[in-house]
Design goal:
Helix content is 48%, strand content 8%. It has 248 residues and is α+β, with helices and mostly antiparallel strands. It is globular. The two termini are 36 Å apart. The model has no long low-confidence stretch (mean pLDDT 96). Bound molecules: zinc ion. Zinc ion binds next to helix 5.
Length: 248
């Protein structure tokens, strides 16, 4: 059944859906600002062109749609058949014509949104398994998508004569949640404690007892997600920040 409004009733899910949709618009706008002849140029992701980023974000929407279908039907449908298949799909997707690539990006995003919209309220707590083997309620797919679209919009980089999507454009609540995600992942893996002190908002994130870094909140997020270390310094001696541990 297709309805025009979300069937979900949980306020937290509805708020997450709003952020994911804003993030999708942010990504789509960034992709639209890149001309067809710029798609083959390097993105900010090492080894990936902008076409790779666009293909990956499109296929990610399809993979998450499979998880929503799993939650709806109870029939197990994994995100990807295997990590190798996921990589091959991205490589192949990056060779699509610009028109096909843009179609993939738009169409996959709409399909995912329709799947979320139509998922009955009682199915949002159904358990599914992510590509990384985490057992999560399907509601988690909304935040998983948010992370992808907000960050990969920035990874696309600016088109000629355009500003491009910047970390500064990401809403504060999304930045804060991303930081908590990254720091939590490091803590779970037993990485050295990291404390982040923001210059611009006076906030503190992370765990004391190890590395302490300072910088603008947006710059600290770019550092923590492995995007850039610009504007981030060690609190003890003001020297440049070391590379961040891997996040995902
Ligand atoms: Zn990604």
């Amino acid at each position: 059944m297709t309805v025009l409004t979300d069937r979900a009733t949980d306020p937290a899910v509805l708020a997450d859906l709003q952020d994911a949709r804003l993030g999708q618009a942010f990504f789509s706008r960034a992709l639209n600002e890149i001309r067809n002849d710029e798609l083959g140029e390097p993105s900010r992701m090492p080894g990936w062109s902008r076409a790779h980023v666009a293909a990956h974000v499109g296929y990610n929407a399809r993979a998450l749609t499979r998880l929503v279908e799993w939650a709806e039907t109870g029939v197990e449908t994994p995100m990807y058949a295997s990590p190798a298949e996921r990589s091959e799909e991205i490589e192949l997707g990056a060779t699509l014509s610009p028109r096909a690539l843009r179609h993939l990006s738009d169409h996959a995003a709409v399909s995912l949104d329709v799947a979320w919209r139509d998922l009955p309220p009682e199915r949002w707590t159904a358990r599914v398994r992510t590509a990384r083997g985490r057992d999560v309620p399907v509601s988690e797919t909304v935040w998983m998508r948010s992370r992808e679209v907000w960050l990969h919009a920035i990874d696309l980089g600016p088109g000629r004569g355009r500003a491009g999507a910047r970390v500064d454009d990401v809403p504060a609540r999304v930045v804060v949640r991303l930081l908590a995600d990254v720091l939590g992942a490091w803590a779970d893996r037993g990485e050295q404690p990291v404390l982040l002190e923001t210059d611009d908002t006076g906030e503190v994130f992370g765990t004391p007892g190890g590395l302490v870094l300072q910088g603008r909140r947006a710059d600290l997020l770019a550092w923590a997600t492995g995007r850039s270390s610009r504007g981030v310094r060690r609190a003890d001696d003001g020297s440049a920040a070391p590379p961040a541990p891997a996040w995902l």
